Amino acid sequence: MKPLLLALTLGTALPAVAQTEVRRAQVYRCGADGRDLRDSPCPNGSAAGSNVDYDQPSASDSRAARERHLAEAKQAAALSQARRASEAEGRRQRSQAVGLQALPPAAQAASGPLVTTIKPPKTVKPKKPGDSGR
């Protein structure tokens, strides 16, 4: 019974350990209050290095993330192309609408809002009291 339990425990723990590799890097704290972190010794040599542990993804995890990124980029490009085709079809259908000999409305990009600016009216400056006819 105990060997079976041990085998099950190791069988579930090993894949989790195999996904990442714990690595160690040396970091130096330099400057005022040790806020400047460097991977090489400080220029004035005042601070001693300390070790920092971090997880390094396995090669298979990195490859899977890269493949997932490429698949999502292809899907985004396909969706963008489908949206552009749909917008072009909508513009084509609107231009074929029967009207009273009127021009079709100007096509505008669906991705940007229509921006109109209104200038304020010019104000008339009052004449100065001593300024007559110059």
Report on this model:
It is built from two helices and three strands. The chain has helices at residues 2-19, 59-95, and strands spanning 20-30, 36-38, 49-57. The longest helix is centred in the middle third of the chain and has 37 residues, at 59-95. The chain is flat. Among the domains are: 24-54, no CATH class; 57-95. The chain is α+β, with helices and mostly antiparallel strands. It has a three-stranded antiparallel sheet.
Give a quick precis of the structure.
The protein has 134 residues and is α+β, with helices and mostly antiparallel strands.
The amount of beta strand, in percent, is 15-25%
Percentage of residues in helical conformation = 40-55%
Uncertain runs with pLDDT below 50, 5 residues or more?
none
Shape: flat
